[in-house]
Design a protein that fits this description.
Structural class: mainly alpha
Number of helices: 5
Distance between the termini: 11 Å
CATH class of one domain: Alpha Beta
Order of helices and strands: HEEHEHHEH
Strand content: 5-15%
Number of strands: 4
Strand order of the largest sheet: 1-2
Radius of gyration: 18 Å
Length: 146
């Protein structure tokens, strides 16, 4: 198992010019990292995050270009804690309809289907801690065993 402790960065290493550039999937969110959005209920967090997730997963524009389209696509796992699956299904339906209205091509829709996992954490705590966590691990790290 890899060491998940702190990493010391020597000053001499930090001063080299050959360090790779930092890759961002959206502005200020480094690729491969985890982000959290917190705000009052009903403000539009889920809708915004679904649009950003679609942009990262399929390389499509978001908010009429207000958020830069990512340079490359990647996997997105979105964990929704507030809404039960039927509500999330409606949100997903609205996302797909909004993408159809913008004439998103079949290739982008296929990328969206393959790269975007939208999981409901709604339900009792044991479900969150066991079933959903295990599903998240399987989706995020295929082939990984506990």
């Amino acid at each position: 198992m890899p060491n998940r402790g702190w990493t010391r960065i020597p000053l001499t290493e930090a001063s080299r010019e050959s360090l790779p550039p930092i890759e961002f999937c959206v502005p200020n969110l480094m690729a491969g990292s985890v982000g959290v959005v917190a705000a009052p209920t009903g403000i539009g967090k889920t809708c915004l995050l679904m649009q950003i997730g679609a942009a990262v997963a399929a390389g499509i524009p978001v908010a009429n270009g207000a958020i830069r389209t990512p340079e490359r696509t990647g996997r997105v796992v979105m964990l929704a804690a507030e809404d039960p699956p039927p509500v999330l299904g409606r949100r997903a339906q609205q996302l797909v309809k909004s993408l159809d209205m913008r004439s998103v091509g079949r290739d982008a829709m296929a990328l969206l289907e393959n790269n975007f996992e939208f999981l409901s954490l709604h339900g009792p705590a044991p479900k969150i801690l066991s079933e959903t966590w295990e599903k998240l691990l399987r989706v995020t790290f295929p082939g990984c065993t506990q």
